[in-house]
Design brief:
Layout lengths: L1 H30 L13 H4 L5 H4 L7 E2 L4 E3 L5 E3 L3 E7 L4 E4 L5 E4 L2 E11 L5 E2 L6 E8 L5 E10 L4 H7 L9 E8 L10 E8 L7 E14 L1 H10 L16 E4 L4
Parallel strand pairs: 1-8, 2-14, 10-13
Antiparallel strand pairs: 3-6, 4-5, 4-11, 5-7, 6-7, 7-9, 9-10, 12-13, 12-14
Length: 259
């Protein structure tokens, strides 16, 4: 009987110890979430999780500084084939993201990439001629092999943007909650006709910072009113990764053949 009580006591102690460890580990997982400021800011992303190691060790990281003096490649063309999609807005805790239904795609380097989602950064992540813009829009695409291509678009203060205005009504949604409306949105409205693109090999600008991402950053900025820009800043005043080393990567300026 005494042996049985002793065994029960040992088991109880073990369970209490395990429960404590579970709570502590769970708390650590929460506090170790990556962010743009504080303990888990971009310069520490590579230390937060082994899956994020590339954020610190990668040699082809994004964003980078772009200049108008980059190599011009006239023979290339980027084709946009976007369709309207039901408006689904997601505050993922790091940015405002709009998910896209299948059927819209871009052809980059003669390869088709399906548009998956687009999201926003404030201020811009890339710089152009040493200057940041108010915001940057990222249109994220993926091909059938899982390779990623991102079209980046600078946003600066100017005229009211009716497409952005459709999203602004849902910027106050709670983190990780989606707002689905009967409205539609067309991402083709974000890209000007005959746009030119800075084209280079880079990475995701958020953990895990995976490389071999094809970047095409539109040279011509998109305009939005100061009020529209401020609505995004209210939620995310700073969600832009700092500029990364170029490391002798080639950056080409693609001017569409139709221009």
């Amino acid at each position: 009987m005494e042996s049985r009580k002793l065994l029960q006591l040992i088991l109880l102690c073990f369970l209490l110890t395990f429960s404590t460890m579970y709570v502590v580990l769970g708390e650590n997982v929460t506090t170790n979430r990556w962010s743009y400021e504080g303990e888990n800011s971009p310069d520490r992303w590579g230390e937060i999780d082994t899956k994020y190691k590339t954020c610190s060790t990668g040699l082809s990281q994004s964003p980078i500084s772009l200049t108008s003096s980059n190599l011009v490649r006239k023979e290339a063309e980027i084709e946009i084939h976007y369709q309207p999609t039901p408006l689904v807005v997601n505050n993922n805790g790091h940015s405002i993201e709009v998910n896209y239904q299948p059927g819209s795609y871009a052809i980059i380097n003669n390869k088709e990439y399906e548009l998956k989602q687009f999201h926003f950064h404030t201020p811009s992540e890339h710089t152009l001629n040493g200057e940041k813009r108010d915001m940057e829009l990222h249109l994220v695409h993926q091909d059938k092999e899982g390779k990623i291509a991102v079209i980046g678009i600078f946003i600066e203060e100017g005229e009211t943007n009716l497409t952005l205005a459709k999203i602004s009504d849902y910027l106050s949604i709670r983190e990780r909650k989606q707002a689905v409306t009967e409205n539609t949105i067309d991402a083709s409205n974000f890209i000007t006709e005959n746009a030119s693109y800075f084209h280079y090999q880079g990475s995701l600008t958020t953990p895990p910072c995976s490389e071999n991402v094809i970047w095409s950053v539109v040279q011509e900025p998109l305009e939005a009113s100061r009020q529209e820009i401020e609505e995004f800043i209210k939620l995310y005043s700073m969600n832009a990764r700092p500029i990364q080393q170029r490391n002798n990567r080639i950056v080409e300026l693609i001017i569409n053949q139709s221009s």
